[in-house]
């Protein structure tokens, strides 16, 4: 299908790259520019373009198209320009063209070219195409602009329209994107952050903000490092903004209790300096089992940022993980000017005084096909640098003509937003690592995957998640740092998301605009969150677990209410791979794994409870509260992910009567004891089952069998014997003698079984009392004739079960072979090959298996066995030939057979009698019993005329040749009477 498209308009471009506009909606069209044309001085460029859509492209990404450019007349171009300007409801598909930076000049009829003080970049013209109604009617109002870069990457523009969707989602409380409400009164400071501070060593409750788990770089899932989940987090004193360093936290793999996290201290040690900070990054496990930490070195007071890495040597025990040594700590990347802004470019551009912002942080590692890459936050370099004219670039707005014009006027009318537009050039970059995993360097620098020129300087926490063969790119942003106005400046945070079939792009905005998560709380709220980070959920191909932190730094929400880890929640990816939805599932604070159990009810909030009410929930002054009341009875403690028995808010221990039974609560941890034996204060021992309830009866616990009685006193009497279940081993059955697992034979249910360490054995030879036995598939000792591993054995039938010897004869043994009924022949236990006499005849066996119809050779002679396997004798017709096997019981072939033979196996015609000569079917007359018969291929023929020896004959209905006067078919014929039979 070919559509005629018309181009008009101008666009800011700098850098040698091809640009594609991807229109988002039910249908999608994009275009690759083939021929690039530049203008010089006052020359105006206009084109008419044919677009040929390649329908072979994958359906889940926007298809690329080929553009052939010609130059139309000026009149048509003017008409097209007017059409593009007046269209307010049609999707604009923008096609950029690229030129070399040094050769580019700008043409604008109303404005002079503006050159930035720090770059030679100039503007180049390009054309804007408007789809006709047949295409645009099915598309939404947003245009996604994608630059095809020479290095194989694609740069997707984050537009004004994209962030306007974020603002609208916040204003409308869109449930598909809104962060779930949390119960503010239930939020707790992370106990592990009550620790020694990296700078001054003072033990205090530290703020904690950005955090990242140790991840598998290939899959993105949270790593299980020797039974631990490890998390790195930025933390520092809430009373000192210049205290930002990386700490290492850890907990048992899969543990979701906030109280169980432990702090291994600051990764880079104590005596840290305020002007040498670390900011966020990522971490993965190397092949040598060390940890590779990627992070941001940040020097203050100018926040000089560099992508950096350090190799961590680790030690671990059953109770602890720690860093033993930091190796090869070094900077990786400081910008390259062309793709990414450097510190010097930022300084030359005017530093903070101009409203500019410098970012080079948050390195995120991902491994693809054995190669590691880093995605990171940065700003675009000269390839697509910031510009004073960004406000006039309609592509940066990404909507309809009417939308774009309104957005431009809104920006021009706001001095602060206009200032921001001139300096905004946020980007998500990509570099490839090289060298050793534990001491990498930069191998290749790519163009940005995402750029936000003219829109925002801050798109943080770059994060790429591989899922279902696609790559999902996420980044956090604040609308307050963008040109887009917000309804409430205190609620302005969100996470943007994009998807691609390739790491290199192009990345398509999820949900049409990229808006995946939007905030719901005021900045000073206890439950306000930020720094959203997505990890895939192991075992699910459509779920992402989202972590964040409560952003009330410096006790904004109240004294003692620190910035802490927020409850995690889930985002579901749609079946199309392009849409997402925030689920209502609220998980424990700071959890990085999902156990499938759903929400922690105490943390689930509403709009009302998302703000502090003063209600006591959880642990307050060493007592546990439920909805402002001290807890009584059996209650779940979400901070410890455990159930406790409370009395007036205090945890109980020891044997406790509750719910018509007894439980035991550990005197140290206070947790309900399950699957264990405990001693009461009065000296007796009891077993408490997998639901914590006290149990009675005979069973094993941890491999030892006990008798707990059956009179509801429950106390342990002593050891037990017999075939019993181990309740701590998936209720598996074992044989016990006086409590211990037994090895040997035991009689049980009318037979013998053999046990090894209590476990019943199957399909095995066993030795006992100096004799050999065999236990079968059901564990029962076998007797009688048995075929085992292709050999025949005799175990007798007198109930002793021991091996008597090998077996011989014609045995039913389907375990050897089911062929021919499952009967086989053995000699001294071994399968036999050859003839064996059985019930009046001989049978032929090959490897013990009886053979049915076929020729056999033995003792230098030939034999034949029939379909039942029996050796034949007498005259036999085999495959149409006649053979004589004799009748003296020797069965061997004597010779070929001749004569008048009853052989229905050859032919049943005319009674089944046939004539053979030297074993072969005969054609012609043969004399038999006083007359001649006529045969054709051995088969006797009945009534009919015959010719032989040059004369004619006639045979009657019984096949006999006629003589004398005969009437045939109403006529008389003379065949003579002298025994010659031929027609006279």
Question: How helical, in percent, are the residues?
Answer: under 10%
Number of strands: 78
Shape: elongated
The biggest sheet, with number of strands, parallel, antiparallel or mixed sense and barrel status, is: 8 strands, mixed
Strand order of the largest sheet: 15-14-13-12-16-17-18-19
Based on secondary structure, the structural category is mainly beta
Number of helices: 6
The whole-angstrom Rg is: 45 Å
User: In what range is the share of β-strand residues?
Assistant: 35-45%
- Spatial separation of the terminal alpha carbons: 91 Å
The average pLDDT score comes to 85
Low-confidence stretches: 1-140
Describe the model.
The structure is a single chain. The longest helix has 13 residues, at 74-86. The chain contains 6 helices and 78 strands. By secondary structure, it is mainly beta. It has an 8-stranded mixed beta sheet with strand order 15-14-13-12-16-17-18-19, with no helix packed on it. Strands 2-8-9-23-22-21-20 form a 7-stranded mixed beta sheet, with no helix packed on it. A 6-stranded mixed beta sheet has the order 3-5-4-1-7-6, with helices on one face.
């Amino acid at each position: 299908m070919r559509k005629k498209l018309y181009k008009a308009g101008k666009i800011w471009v700098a850098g040698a790259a091809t640009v594609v506009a991807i229109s988002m909606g039910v249908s999608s069209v994009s275009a690759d520019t083939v021929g690039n044309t530049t203008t010089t001085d006052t020359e105006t460029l206009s084109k008419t373009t044919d677009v040929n859509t390649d329908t072979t492209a994958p359906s889940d990404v926007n298809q690329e198209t080929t553009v052939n450019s010609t130059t139309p007349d000026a009149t048509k171009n003017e008409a097209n320009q007017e059409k593009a300007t007046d269209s307010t409801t049609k999707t604009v598909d923008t096609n950029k063209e690229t030129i070399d930076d040094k050769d580019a000049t700008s043409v604008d009829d109303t404005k002079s070219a503006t050159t930035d003080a720090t770059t030679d970049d100039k503007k180049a013209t390009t054309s804007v195409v408007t789809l006709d109604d047949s295409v645009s009617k099915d598309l939404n109002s947003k245009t996604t602009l994608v630059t095809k870069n020479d290095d194989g990457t694609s740069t997707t523009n984050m537009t004004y329209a994209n962030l306007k969707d974020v603002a609208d989602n916040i204003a409308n409380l869109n449930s598909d994107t809104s962060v779930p409400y949390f119960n503010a009164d239930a939020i707790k400071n992370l106990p592990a952050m009550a620790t020694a501070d990296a700078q001054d060593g003072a033990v205090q409750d530290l703020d904690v903000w950005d955090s990242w788990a140790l991840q598998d770089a290939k899959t993105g899932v949270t790593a299980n490092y020797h039974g631990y989940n490890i998390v790195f987090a930025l933390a520092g004193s809430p009373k000192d903004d210049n205290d930002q360093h990386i700490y290492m936290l850890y907990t048992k793999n899969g543990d979701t209790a906030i109280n169980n996290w432990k702090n291994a201290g600051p990764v880079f040690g104590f005596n840290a300096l305020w002007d040498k900070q670390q900011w966020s990054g990522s971490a993965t496990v190397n092949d040598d089992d060390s940890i590779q930490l990627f992070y941001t070195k940040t020097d203050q007071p100018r926040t000089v940022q560099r992508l950096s890495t350090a190799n961590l040597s680790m030690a671990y025990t059953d109770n602890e993980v720690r860093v033993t040594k930091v190796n090869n700590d070094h900077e990786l990347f400081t910008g390259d000017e062309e793709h990414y802004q450097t510190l010097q470019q930022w300084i030359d551009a005017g530093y903070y005084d101009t409203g500019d912002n410098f970012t080079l942080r948050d390195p995120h590692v991902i491994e693809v096909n054995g190669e590691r890459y880093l995605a990171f936050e940065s700003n675009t370099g000269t390839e697509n640098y910031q510009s004073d004219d960004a406000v006039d670039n309609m592509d940066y707005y990404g909507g309809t003509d009417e939308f774009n014009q309104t957005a431009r006027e809104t920006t021009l009318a706001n001095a602060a937003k206009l200032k921001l537009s001139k300096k905004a050039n946020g980007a998500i970059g990509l570099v490839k690592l090289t060298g050793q995993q534990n001491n990498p360097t930069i191998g290749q620098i790519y163009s940005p995957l995402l750029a936000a020129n003219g829109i925002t300087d801050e798109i943080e926490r770059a994060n790429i998640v591989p899922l279902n063969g696609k790559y999902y790119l996420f980044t956090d942003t604040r609308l307050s740092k963008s040109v887009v106005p917000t309804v409430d400046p205190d609620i302005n945070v969100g996470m943007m998301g994009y998807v691609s079939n390739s790491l290199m792009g192009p990345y398509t905005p999820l949900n049409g605009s990229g808006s995946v998560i939007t905030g719901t709380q005021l900045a000073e709220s206890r439950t306000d969150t930020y720094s959203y980070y997505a990890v895939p959920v192991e075992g699910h191909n459509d779920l992402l677990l989202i972590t964040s932190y409560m952003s009330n730094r410096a006790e904004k929400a109240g004294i003692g209410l620190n910035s802490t880890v927020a409850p995690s929640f889930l985002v579901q990816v749609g079946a199309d791979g392009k849409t997402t939805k925030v689920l209502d599932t609220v998980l424990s604070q700071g959890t990085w794994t999902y156990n499938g159990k759903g929400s922690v009810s105490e943390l689930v909030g509403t709009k009302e409870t998302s703000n502090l009410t003063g209600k006591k929930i959880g642990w307050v002054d060493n007592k546990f509260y439920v909805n402002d009341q001290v807890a009584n009875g059996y209650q779940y403690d979400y901070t410890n992910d455990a159930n406790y028995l409370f009395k007036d808010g205090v945890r109980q221990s020891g044997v406790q009567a509750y719910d018509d039974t007894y439980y035991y609560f550990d005197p140290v941890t206070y947790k309900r004891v399950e699957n264990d034996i405990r001693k009461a204060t009065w000296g007796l021992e009891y077993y408490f089952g997998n639901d914590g309830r006290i149990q009675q009866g005979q069973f094993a616990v941890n491999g030892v069998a006990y008798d707990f009685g059956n009179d509801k006193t429950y106390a342990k009497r002593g050891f037990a014997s017999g075939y019993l279940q181990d309740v701590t081993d998936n209720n598996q059955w074992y044989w016990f003698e006086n409590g211990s697992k037994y090895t040997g034979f035991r009689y049980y249910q009318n037979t013998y079984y053999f046990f090894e360490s209590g476990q019943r054995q199957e399909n095995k030879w066993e030795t006992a009392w100096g004799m050999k036995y065999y236990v079968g598939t059901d564990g029962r000792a076998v007797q009688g004739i048995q075929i085992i591993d292709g050999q025949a054995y005799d175990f007798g039938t007198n109930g002793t079960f021991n091996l008597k010897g090998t077996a011989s004869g014609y045995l039913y043994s389907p375990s050897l072979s089911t062929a021919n009924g499952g009967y086989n022949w053995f000699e001294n236990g071994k399968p036999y090959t050859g003839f064996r006499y059985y019930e009046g005849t001989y049978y032929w066996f090959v490897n013990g298996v009886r053979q049915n119809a076929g020729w056999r050779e033995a003792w230098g002679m030939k034999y034949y066995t029939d379909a039942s396997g029996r050796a034949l004798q007498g005259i036999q017709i085999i495959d149409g030939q006649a053979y004589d096997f004799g009748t003296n019981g020797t069965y061997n072939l004597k010779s070929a057979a001749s004569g008048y033979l009853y052989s229905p196996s050859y032919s049943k015609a005319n009674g089944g009698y046939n004539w053979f000569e030297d074993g072969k079917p005969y054609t012609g007359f043969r004399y038999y019993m006083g007359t001649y018969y006529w045969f054709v291929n051995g088969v006797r023929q009945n009534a009919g005329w015959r010719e032989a020896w040059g004369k004619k004959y006639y045979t009657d209905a019984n096949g006999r040749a006629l003589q004398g006067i005969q009437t045939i078919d109403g006529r008389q014929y003379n065949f003579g009477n002298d025994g010659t039979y031929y027609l006279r």
